[in-house]
Design goal:
With 470 residues, this protein is an alpha/beta fold. It contains 18 helices and 15 strands. The strands form three sheets. Strands 14-13-12-11-8-7-15 form a seven-stranded mixed beta sheet. A hairpin with a 5-residue loop joins strand 7 and strand 8. The relative contact order is 0.11.
Length: 470
């Protein structure tokens, strides 16, 4: 019997769908499979040593960076195993991963390809580095999904939880109703792999996955689709069935600003079926920056989306790429002032106000002349193109705000207090020549549920994690 090990280093604080789904496929093919989520557990070295295939799930930049020392350690433990990297960031960093000892990469729909790779047992054969630029490494197309196999993963109550406004906590489950995205936002890591395509997960599979997580204690669900409204017909059918079967359960989704405006008629459906809040990647309130990012919405659309969500009593959690090469100190202050004027201070996770544009390999932002002027050569250690802002004061402010947010996260400082410190730091950076008074006394108290995972706060592997691999 073939042996496979699947490894996740970090997946935003939820039980990894990216392990559970391929595990079901591998097990269905008669391959003995072990899964390890290194954000919560250590690797069983004996499992590594006996594996024919070791797969590393790389859905995001942070996960990929943490995986680097793990890949090297696994290669030392088992020189004969075939190492495979899969997920969004695998094809984007294929040549670098090859140099680490990875034999193959899979982008897009990775389940069936992982099964083929495991059954072929190619071992640690040498692979031409140029093969990693081939389209054959990316597989996009319809497939019949299987109910994810979650029994080998840590319990749901060990992951992020949802804190309700009354202080009560709910165990959170996670599933996906689709992958990919129809849109081509320049900074998005989905685009280099899916290039405007998306794939649905069949409704019965989604419901079956939800059911097994409810049986494991889930009380709230996050639908991890990049945009839940990429396929509104599919999405609405799922939430109707969800609510029909479990009328007391709640959920959250991610929807683009332009879709919140375009598909207003579906917002009451979300509310009626248990949606507590919608996450939306606003990114900026500067129309020129939004155009550079090819976001498909404007500042005015954002205002409309806020109004529509309030009209239909849906919480809105905006996310941002606050620092880009195009932002100015005054522009950043305008972002803060806009959030205050829209009464959204309590709705924005503070880390969102510190995020700096990440430019990974193959990013569409590299198309822009303005980006070519500020980037440095690709940095293998950080897996991105470093860039410096034309105004050094902006970079200095970003670093300082990141420090404010990290300290606030460690001390569990209320969001309004964090915002006040960020506002003061911004005013100081601009100088006294252009003071702006902002009254924060009228901000509403936070009435939104809050997920406990401090998104993007984990960027480096901890010493404990590294020691567990050796």
């Amino acid at each position: 019997m073939k042996n496979a090990v699947l490894i996740s280093t970090y997946e935003l604080g939820h039980q990894p769908f990216g392990l559970a789904s391929p595990a079901a496929w591998l097990e269905n093919a008669g391959i003995q499979t072990r899964c390890f989520d290194l954000s919560l557990e250590q690797i069983d070295k004996n499992a590594i040593r006996s594996a024919d295939l070791v797969g590393f799930y790389l859905p995001m930049h942070t996960a990929t960076r943490i995986a680097v020392p793990v890949i090297s350690a696994v290669r030392e433990m088992n020189s004969n195993a075939h190492l495979c990297a899969f997920g969004l960031y695998a094809p984007m960093n294929a040549q670098f991963l090859h140099r680490l000892g990875v034999n193959s990469v899979i982008g897009g729909e990775y389940e069936s390809e992982l099964v083929k790779t495991a059954l072929e047992s190619p071992g640690s054969r040498a692979v031409d580095e140029h093969d990693f630029n081939s389209p054959k490494e990316i597989h996009i197309g319809k497939q019949q999904f299987l109910r994810p196999s979650r029994q080998g993963l840590p319990a749901l109550d060990q992951y992020a939880y949802l804190t309700m406004p009354d202080g009560s906590k709910r165990t959170v489950g996670y599933t996906e109703a689709s992958r990919g995205c129809k849109h081509l936002c320049r900074h998005c890591p989905i685009v280099p792999v899916y290039n405007g395509r998306f794939v649905i997960v069949q409704k019965d599979v989604v419901i079956a996955d939800i059911r097994q997580q409810i049986e494991a204690g889930a009380e709230h669900f996050t639908f991890g689709d990049p945009d839940f409204f990429n396929g509104t017909g599919h999405a609405i059918k799922i939430v109707h069935k969800f609510h029909e079967l479990w009328p007391d359960l709640t959920y959250d989704v991610t929807v683009k600003v332009e879709h919140l405006v375009k598909f207003e008629k579906y917002l009451p459906v979300l509310k009626e079926t248990g949606c507590l809040f919608v996450i939306s990647a606003v990114e900026s309130v500067d129309n020129a920056i939004l155009e550079n990012l090819d976001k498909g919405h404007t500042r005015e659309d954002f205002y409309d989306a806020v109004a529509l969500c309030r009209k239909h009593e849906l919480g809105l959690n905006p996310t941002f790429v606050a620092f880009t090469p195009w932002i100015t100190l005054e522009g950043y202050r305008d972002l803060l002032r806009t959030l205050a004027e829209l009464d959204l201070v309590e709705s924005v996770t503070p880390v969102q106000l510190a995020i700096r544009l990440l430019i990974p390999n193959k990013s569409r932002v590299l198309e822009l002349e303005s980006i070519q002027k500020v980037i440095e050569p690709f940095d293998d250690e950080n897996l991105c193109y470093p860039w410096q802002h034309p105004d050094p004061r902006v970079d200095k402010l970003q670093v300082f705000i990141e420090e404010i947010v990290e300290k606030a996260c460690a001390e569990d400082t209320p969001r309004l207090k964090v915002f006040e410190k960020i506002w003061e730091a911004t005013q100081h950076a601009i100088g006294n020549s252009d003071p702006v008074i902002l009254d924060l006394s009228q901000q509403s108290e936070n009435s939104l549920p809050i997920l406990s995972e401090p998104w993007y706060c984990c960027a480096e592997p901890t010493k404990q994690q590294l020691e567990s691999f050796m």
